[in-house]
Amino acid sequence: MLATNLRRTLSLAAALFCVATVCSAQQTLRVRLINGKNGKALTPTSIRVATTPAEKPRYLIPAADPASVLVYLKSAASFTVTQQFVRCDVDPKSKDGAAPAQYSVRDILDRGQVSANTCSPKVPPIAPKPGELVLYVRHATPCELSKDHINGVNFCN
Predict the structure, then answer these.
(1) Which domain holds residue 103?
(2) Cα–chain-centroid distance for residue 26?
(3) What pTM does this model have?
(4) Does residue 12 sit within a domain?
(5) Cα 73 to chain center, whole Å?
(6) How many domains does the chain have?
(7) CA 36, CA 154: separation in Å to the nearest integer?
(8) Band of the pLDDT at 75, cuts 50, 70, 90?
(9) Rounded Cα gap, residues 112 and 10, in angstroms
(10) 132 lies in a domain?
(11) Does residue 143 register a pLDDT over 70?
(12) Is 60 inside any structural domain?
């Protein structure tokens, strides 16, 4: 009887150790999308996260807070975020847009990060919060949508 209880206790301790080890290796970040034109939160419907360029992006779905998503990463130093809106931290005169930005997991966990907002100087900047990445974005124009959805042809130029 004593040996059985001891075995159960040791098994439980081993299981708890394994769970604690996995949990400590997993990092949780919050990604929020803010409309760069008016400063209001946008509900993301299609956010993709990749930790390396070779990795197939994972799609994330908003959780309890409809204006953000939680990102769970295991031992990643950086990651990229792509989503359905147009980024406000990219030069609007750029014809090709920009490659997805790399975000440092450690910087976001320690201090938080807020992207630049070139969409409107009237929108006050948000203060960074540890564990949170805030991206200023805007809705695509009809011209931008036609370029993206019809084999790269832009009928507005």
Answers:
(1) 26-149
(2) 15
(3) 0.73
(4) no
(5) 11
(6) 1
(7) 24
(8) confident
(9) 40
(10) yes
(11) yes
(12) yes
For residue 97, tell me if it sits in a domain.
Answer: yes
Separation between Cα atoms, residue 132 and residue 28, nearest integer Å: 9
Write the pLDDT tens digit of every residue in 44-67: 777 888 887 777 667 665 656 777
Tokens linked to 122: 């009237």
The CATH number of the domain where 114 resides is what? Answer: 2.60.40
- CA–CA separation, 61 and 41 (whole Å): 16
Instruction: Specify the long-range contacts of residues 79-82, CB closer than 8 Å, at least 24 apart.
Output: 79/49, 79/50, 79/51, 79/103, 79/105, 80/49, 80/50, 80/53, 81/31, 81/47, 81/48, 81/49, 81/133, 81/135, 82/47, 82/48, 82/50, 82/57
Residue 11 scores a pLDDT above 60:
no
> When comparing pLDDT for 55 and 4, which is higher?
55
Which carries the bigger pLDDT value, residue 142 or residue 20? 142
In this structure, what token pair is assigned to residue 45? 């419907």
Q: What residues form DSSP beta bridges with 29? A: 71
